[in-house]
Request: fold
Amino acid sequence: MNPSLGRVVALTAILASSVAGSGLHSQNRSSKAQRELGELLFFETTLNNPGATFQSGCGGCHFVGKAPRGGRERFYSEQVPRSLMPGQGSARQETTLRNTPALLDLDGAHRFGIDGRFASLAELVREKIFSNHLGWQSKDRARAEGQLKTALLDDPAVDYRPKFQAAYRVDIETLSEKEVVDLTVRALTQYTGEIQSARTATWDAFADQNRIPLGPARDEDPKHYAGRIYGRLTNQEGRVLIKRPVGFSEEAYQGFKTFFRVEGNASVGNCVSCHVPPGFTDGLFHNTGISELEYTDVNSARAFAKLPIAEAAAAGRRPDPDFLAVPTKSNKSKIDLGHWNWVDLENSPQRVEGETDDALLQRMIGAFRTPSLRNLPRTDPYMHNGAYPTLESAVADIVRVNSLAREGKLHSIDPDYLLMNLAESDIAPLVAFLRSIDEVGEAEFRELLITFE
Reply:
């Protein structure tokens, strides 16, 4: 066989074996060499525009461990509301549109990105490494893709030749620029898709000790799942059989009950409806009212209702640049409508039976992907706009939104907010419970399983 043809066939087989939609599920782990390559590329800082004001990479915003600019431990997240992007010498440097989301359990999502604009994790990765996140403008796309192979071959710190050879059995020097791009995207997609929750939090130990199912059964409604848990807890509480691991305080336990309570007259969090265990996310998109509040803060309470959202949708203006921007005092007409810009009207899993396109779009106004609640102490600040520096401030605003929703003062809000019934007294217990979902190392988790309050 012609050597060049053999190389093409082998490379085609490698790429064809990759998951077309998202990252790999944990049961289909990549090889050690592939994981090592993906990790190296994730933290690589030479792939950006050579003319950018500073070097960056995926790990430049998705910090892991001790943040390089000081501050607390991070979990694949940024420590500022909006990340600074490497510019090209302009007086005003750009920041990201939104807060950098933590990376966790992405393999089960049906759409990717905080606003769901990407159909696959591979598509997201490809777009990010050739975007202004790494100092590239849209007109630079061809140059950016061509630069990648050169950057890898000339990297002063890592010899990528043996890394690609070990991972994919190819010599990147003989590959075309496009082939190197495709394999780089593949490696990064594998790495990010395999960032999985360890399920070693204090909450996980509590669930294990009390034989609480970590998540709903297949096709079980989260509210039904919550009801099953409440039935078990009521029975156990009556016989004083509730066990609590060290660190899972009485306050955290009360917060847990509020989080899982889906009906009643007080302390009804209904949080479990969207933040479904064990990942504490449903992977879907919901309007939490935050985008509307951000807009009214620089305009007025009545301004949101006057936005020409319906007209833009009718005219086919999706995505709409005016609705993919941060409202400011100098730019009051802009707003971030999130998933409204990208919802797939043909295939959205969030369409209710019999729902019209207009009704679906109305529900997706200001909707963003439900974030995982695992490791929250290491992923501040919170919400898609990073406007909440502490868990206390974030939960307090959820209580405020719940009150406004029940009073009918929000233009558009997810219906589950109307089922909530929270007060200021619920803030501290909920925060205590949310802190209990922070994962620890295996040795510490083993201790949690056998030690009790």
Remarks:
- The first strand starts at residue 63 and ends at 66.
- Strands lie at 63-66, 73-77, 285-287, 367-369.
- DSSP finds 17 helices and four strands in the chain.
